Amino acid sequence: xxxxxxxxxxxxxxxxxxxxxxxxxxxxxxxxxxxxxxxxxxxxxxxxxxxxxxxxxxxxxxxxxxxxxxxxxxxxxxxxxxxxxxxxxxxxxxxxxxxxxxxxxxxxxxxxxxxxxxxxxxxxxxxxxxxxxxxxxxxxxxxxxxxxxxxxxxxxxxxxxxxxxxxxxxxxxxxxxxxxxxxxxxxxxxxxxxxxxxxxxxxxxxxxxxxxxxxxxxxxxxxxxxxxxx
Length: 230
Hints:
By secondary structure, this protein is an alpha+beta fold.
């Protein structure tokens, strides 16, 4: 008796339909877990990815939060291995590269919304506070984008001297300060305000302009300049 034809797993038709919907409607036509399914197809070619995609959304809350989740927490979700983590981090890296490209080739003050979008994507979902600085040249184009310090869930040590020193090393003429509040509340604290004042005062003595200090979180941002704090 000849070999019986092997039936395709039931999820193969689902994959084709989901790819077709994405092709026809784009990301707006898909739920968050369905976007995750599309990413997981490559990492898990022989598994139904819908249950895992839904589990990831349930664990972290949304598609962006899954992409931003640290590796150790992703691996705590049953069914997630190194291959899945790699695919998720690749997508995040690609998204950040695209956003960074939007602000790297032109004066940032002319593309401020792109700056805000990039800062939120780069730092807004981090589980620990981190202090990032965008160093700018005299045309207000980005010379460097660096995380200076990383702290705890509610504090990051910031050293004014190191910030000014690094700006001089890069021949920067202006900076944009950025840090995140993992709590999601982007309201500046008293410590944030005092620290920013110290940086502005030190920078002014050397002709270095502090354009803004932006606090980012999962739901939005706060601008010190817009709040009248600079």
